[in-house]
Amino acid sequence: MTRTRTPVVAGWFTEGGGEREFRLLGTRCTGCHAVFFPREDAFCRNPVCSGGELAEVPLSRRGRVWSYTDGRYRPPAPYVSDAGAAWEPYTLVAVELTIERMVVLGQAAPGVTVADLSVGMEVEVVPGILNEDEDTAWTTWNWRPVGTVR
Predict the structure, then answer these.
(1) CA pair distance 92, 60, nearest whole angstrom
(2) Which of 36, 72, 143, 146 falls 20 to 30 Å from 96 in CA-CA distance?
(3) pTM score, two decimals?
(4) Residue 61 Rama label (left phi>0; alpha psi -120 to 50; beta)
């Protein structure tokens, strides 16, 4: 059975087109050129900017590991999860995008652990699956070390 692919948050990344075309989507202020992720669609967040229009902009596909950690326990309430399901550790990666001058947090690609990462390592954004049920595959982004085959 084919599951419907549904973004966890609509408008934060591209869908379709394959891994090479996958990008996070931010917004850029036309007044001060500041870039925002998550995207901002109402006003420029830069406190010294008098404002400008906000235009969607694809972010860099690659960046460098700024920091990372692993989640080895089920988060407490109000986090919602199936208490009966086995808990699987996951790796979180903070990635610095040099061109945009920002750090973006995301989960590491499946199979990537803290042992595979180091600060300053080059990583790339790739499409990922956050969760699946009978009908839906909830899509998101993952960070993967450059040169790693999926």
Answers:
(1) 19
(2) 72
(3) 0.88
(4) alpha
